[in-house]
Amino acid sequence: MVFIKRIEFMDDYASEACVTISDGLFELIVFKHPFKFEKIEVDIHELTALHSDKIYRANTYVYSIKKLDGFFEYELTGLVIDRQKDLVRVGEFVIELDGIIPGDILEGEFVSCRCGRIDC
Q: Which superkingdom, per the lineage (predicted)?
């Protein structure tokens, strides 16, 4: 089960927030816009990895999330669950990659990639 752990408002005027989400094992800091304080509901089941690149078949079949140097940057390893929609599961998180999963990688295989930001 994915839940919101923390909300940090970046810019009230622009309605931007950093939302820390967790599945109990992994944590992600994701970007949310627009974010309305009056409505603290974030659809954490619709995650999109922006600037996802270096997508390749993983050497291991183990979920992993590694925080990189950029504030929102991550390296992810997860299970391809839908090639048509470029959906990858990492733990309980289902993330849509904005990059294309290479054609020789099938659903049920693990991939690794880098992403510049994850939005919800």
A: Bacteria
* pTM recorded for the entire structure: 0.89
Name the residue with tokens 């600037």.
51
User: What digits encode the pLDDT tens for the residues 46-81?
Assistant: 899 999 999 999 999 999 999 999 889 999 999 999
Judge contact between 115 and 47, C-beta under 8 A: no
Q: How far is CA 71 from CA 54, 59, 85, in A?
A: 19, 26, 26
- Structure tokens that stand for 43 in this block: 């659809």
- Reference 96, options 18, 60, 43; nearest CA is 43
Q: Alpha-carbon distance 6 to 29, whole Å?
A: 9
Q: How far apart are CA 90 and CA 60, in angstroms?
A: 13
- CA-to-CA dists, residue 108 to 58, 100, 105, angstroms: 12, 16, 9
Measure the CA–CA gap between 62 and 50, rounded to whole angstroms: 22
Q: The tokens of 64 are what?
A: 């992993």
